[in-house]
């Protein structure tokens, strides 16, 4: 293999369109770390939704959890296509996410606190994916497509937790199966049944 840096037309055209590819890679890596950490923490939070009331909450968290895994996987290929990489150390990667707030509440089975943590995570994801949409709109249709589809699911997730916490109707309809990913299934096939 040659030691020279390859000429990558897929990156060159994005730069010509005015995209700061390095800034986009950095944001995508951060967003992927948030999605990965959310998947992990939602696994813990879901496990602590106990009792009759907890059963309904588990279902909603499971949908969000599996779709966050899809969001993580949807990001990875694009990061590498753009010439980026993921951190080698998983501890650094998790810390990059800033998701420490998702740890279990003091009373580990406090359903309301669990849902508030989930809501906060979804709201942060909305902000993060909107950044990518703004960076790529009109410049990078491939990344924009991924980001807008993830954003659509994150907005749905937010509305689910708003419904559970505040009794605000969300229009939430049950997914056909956990992790259905109505918007992002085309970007991540690892969860296909």
UniProtKB/TrEMBL annotation:
Pfam families: Ferritin. Residues 26-164 form the Ferritin/DPS domain. Fe cation binds at residues 35, 71, 122, 154, 157. Keywords: Cytoplasm, Iron, Iron storage, Metal-binding, Oxidoreductase. One of its GO terms (biological process) is intracellular iron ion homeostasis. Its EC number is 1.16.-.-. InterPro entries: Dps-like, DPSL_diiron-bd_dom, Ferritin-like, Ferritin-like_SF, Ferritin_DPS_dom. GO terms for cellular component: cytosol; nucleoid. It catalyses: 2 Fe(2+) + H2O2 + 2 H(+) = 2 Fe(3+) + 2 H2O. Its main location: cytoplasm. It is found in: Cytoplasm, Nucleoid. One of its GO terms (molecular function) is ferroxidase activity. It comes from the Archaea. Protects DNA from oxidative damage by sequestering intracellular Fe2+ ion and storing it in the form of Fe3+ oxyhydroxide mineral. One hydrogen peroxide oxidizes two Fe2+ ions, which prevents hydroxyl radical production by the Fenton reaction. Homododecamer. The 12 identical subunits form a hollow sphere into which the mineral iron core of up to 300 Fe(3+) can be deposited. Belongs to the Dps family. PANTHER family: BACTERIOFERRITIN, DNA PROTECTION DURING STARVATION PROTEIN. This is DNA protection during starvation protein.
């Amino acid at each position: 293999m040659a030691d020279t840096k390859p000429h990558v037309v897929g990156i060159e055209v994005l730069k010509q369109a005015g995209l700061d590819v390095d800034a986009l890679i950095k944001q995508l890596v951060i967003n992927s770390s948030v999605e990965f950490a959310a998947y992990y923490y939602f696994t813990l939070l879901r496990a602590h939704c106990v009792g009759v009331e907890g059963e309904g909450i588990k279902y909603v968290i499971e949908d969000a959890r599996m779709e966050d895994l899809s969001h993580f996987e949807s990001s990875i290929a694009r990061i590498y296509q753009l010439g980026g990489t993921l951190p080698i150390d998983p501890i650094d990667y998790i810390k990059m996410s800033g998701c420490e707030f998702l740890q279990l509440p003091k009373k580990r089975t406090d359903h309301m606190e669990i849902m508030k943590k989930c809501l906060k995570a979804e709201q942060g994801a909305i902000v993060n994916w909107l950044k990518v949409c703004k960076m790529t709109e009109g410049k990078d249709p491939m990344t924009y497509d991924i980001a807008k589809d993830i954003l659509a699911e994150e907005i749905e997730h937010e509305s689910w937790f708003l419904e559970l916490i505040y009794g605000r109707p969300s229009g939430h309809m049950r997914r056909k199966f956990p992790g259905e990913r109505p918007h992002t299934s085309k970007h991540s096939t690892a969860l296909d049944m």
